[in-house]
Amino acid sequence: MTFLVAALVVLLAGVRITGEADRLADRTGLGEAVFGGILLGASTSLSGIVTSVTAASDGLASLAVSNAVGGITAQTAFLVVADMIYRKVNLEHAAADANNMLMAAMMVLMVSLPMGAAYAPEYALFAIHPVSILLFVVYLFGAKAAVGLRHEPMWQPENTSDTRADEPDEGEANKRPLWIMIATFAGLSLVLGLCGFAIARSGAAISSELGISQTVVGALMTAVATSLPELVTTLAAVRRGALQLAVGGIIGGNTFDVLFLSVSDAAYREGSIYHAMSQADGLMMIGAIIITSILLMGLIMRERRGIGFEGAAILVTYFGLAAIQVSMGVSGSG
Asked: Yes or no: is domain 2-331 CATH 3.40.50.460?
């Protein structure tokens, strides 16, 4: 019951925070792609990061890792759902933006680093692996590059009749004082974070009482529950016509989700969390890299109609990965 209630609150808070993000993107001048990729992506990920950190501090390494990486795969699948709803044109075509491609490429790099750490000799300083620090450095570099790319773009995607430009809605953005908008955004983000704590504790109980592997619970239950804000914000952004915010929020949220691993490593006091994760967790990381690479290809190729090759490939990969995880979880290998 706790799990379901927390998931419902996450869902409702996610609906409200989308509108605030769209208005703040216009008011601050950051634009939908940058605001969605950095600030909205981070805020909607708070419930997930609290879930992973709580699990790691309780010694549940697989639950912490699979929740983080499972959120990446689930959220990318949510983008395909939004693409199905937006029937006018392929979402990746309409929301073409250099920042979205930059963040997707950065996400692939960031997930690759923990994979490399898992196969490298185990080393930790104060029980924190150097890769955990490196992930923050890479993320900050990417965030700085994204802001710079917004103000001084080196190239632009070709505009077509189906391209949706990021044009501020000045009338809506200026209705309320900026500090109230920021406070509302921050308050909703806090609610999402508190719900993450409840989801983590209930997820651990589900794994223990039902005998389901931590990876299955993390990747397919807690990850999906804590990713509900991304689903809601993406669908709401598409309805509002804020297509770059929709795509940027998913990609940015995925990129921020990789940092779950860094803070989880710090919270996991039994050594490097990358060496404590299971084979099933490593498979989830590979799946996240594959799915994001497919999305990046879709952003570059920009098919006009339907969900495109990338949408179909992402769904097939996601459900195939889920089926393998369930099989491994039931057999006790996860």
From this structure: no
